[in-house]
Amino acid sequence: MLRSDFHIHTSFSTDSNAPMEDVIKRSIALGLTDIAITDHMDYDFPEDVAKDAGGNFMFDVKEHLNVFTKLKEKFHRDINLFYGIEMGFMDNADDFYNNLLKTYPFDFNIGSLHIVDDMDPYFQKYWDNMGSAAAGIERYLSQMLSSIKRFKNYDSLGHADYIFRVAPGKKEYEYSEYADYFDEILKILITDGKALEVNTAGYKYGLGVPNPRPCVLKRYKELGGELITVGSDAHAPEQLAYDYKKCEALLKELGYKYVFIYKDHKPEGYTI
Ligand SMILES: [Zn+2]
Ligand SMILES: [Zn+2]
After folding, report:
1. Which ligand is nearest to the CA of 89?
2. Less Cβ around it within 10 Å: N or C end of the chain?
3. How far apart are CA 178 and CA 138, in angstroms?
4. What is Dmax (Cα atoms) for the chain?
């Protein structure tokens, strides 16, 4: 059974109002045994995008850790809590993230791409600037590729095909259309010992599949990839473990037997 949620936001994230304690209580009620709090940290978030988004996707880690530590103590009999973060890849953020990871006792960090060429594909401006959906998708995937070639200090690659969640008129694709990008991305993950995240928010957005799509998860396995983490990308307690039954069935169908949790950046698998 799927019993870990390793992608969760709380009110420390610009785009969430969920108190950390409510998130933990709901996770316990759902029967989850292991969760990681992974609030957004997007270093060097572009100012004009921050205006549209209502914040700059940074938080005070000291204060965050303080709240987390107290709750971990309070609920330690009920659930295993892991200290995580979702770091947005940025060309000039590597030193900042490396330093952060050295300074604070994170168990797990998701590396994910939200900002490309100082624009956020969540907003129309990105697509207007790229000229077409096809160009915007390719630019995103090539930026992800260059990010993971350069930056190696993350545990799991978050929502690898996120761009198809927001691309206008292009929510579905065949693996063959983007095989060059995805093959290279997946091979780098495997060589570097990184996990691929299965993000169930795809179901929440009505895609009918997680991010990345089953074709990517299938190919990762074919190439020898075993490390997967699963998370709902919840921004509210009711989104925790979103469509986990569907996700579990899909993973089993694809032949995955284990899902991984991370403690002190080390993967531990459990049988699903
Ligand atoms: Zn994200
Ligand atoms: Zn997220």
Report:
1. 1
2. N
3. 8
4. 53
Nearest residue to 137 via CA among 175, 157, 165, 176:
165
Report which of 197, 238, 191 is spatially closest to residue 216, judged by C-alpha positions. 197
Tokens of 222: 């074919």
* Ligand 1 center from residue 177 Cα (angstroms): 23
Q: Which residue has the tokens 């030193």?
A: 95
pLDDT tens per residue across span 261-271 = 999 999 999 99
The per-residue b/e assignment along 202-229, b for 16 or more CB within 10 angstroms, e otherwise, is: bbbeebebbbbbebbbebbbeeebebbb
Q: What is residue 272's predicted lDDT score, i.e. its pLDDT? A: 97
pTM for the predicted model, two decimal places: 0.97
Homologous superfamily (CATH) of 4-271 is Metal-dependent hydrolases (3.20.20.140)
Beta strand extents in the chain (DSSP E only): 4-8, 34-41, 80-88, 108-112, 156-157, 195-199, 228-231, 258-263, 266-271
Residues with C-beta atoms within 5 A of ion ligand 1 = 112
pLDDT single digits (tens) 92-129: 999 999 999 999 999 999 999 999 999 999 999 999 99
